[in-house]
Design a protein that fits this description.
- It is built from one helix and ten strands.
- By secondary structure, it is mainly beta.
- The protein has one domain: Metal Binding Protein, Guanine Nucleotide Exchange Factor, Chain A (Beta Complex), CATH 2.170.150.70.
- The longest helix is centred in the N-terminal third of the chain and has 6 residues.
- The radius of gyration is 13 Å and the shape is globular.
Amino acid sequence: MNYQGSCHCGKISYQIEAEPDKAIECNCSHCSRKGYLLWFLPREALTLATPESDMATYTFNTHRIRHQFCPTCGCAPFGFGKHPKTGADTVAVNVRCLQGVDIDTLERMPVDGRSI
């Protein structure tokens, strides 16, 4: 299945080719403030329609995830990182920024990021 995603103003636009079934709901200071529901996928599942140079990046704590956000509207639709066990390139997609995804149907997996 293909899903279109974007930031609020549409400056960041992308497509995901996969079917979401669960999302991580982390309680760390960053995720809880932004209301993230993150779906982790291989990096190649995301196709950007926006050049990375048009995005801003935020990292914190261990700096493992490069959270991409729109410099215009501030919305953060995804982040890039590495799989902790394999080192493979990954993307953490905020499912709230995908069109046509009913987040109430997703299994929510709580993660205690506050204690890490």
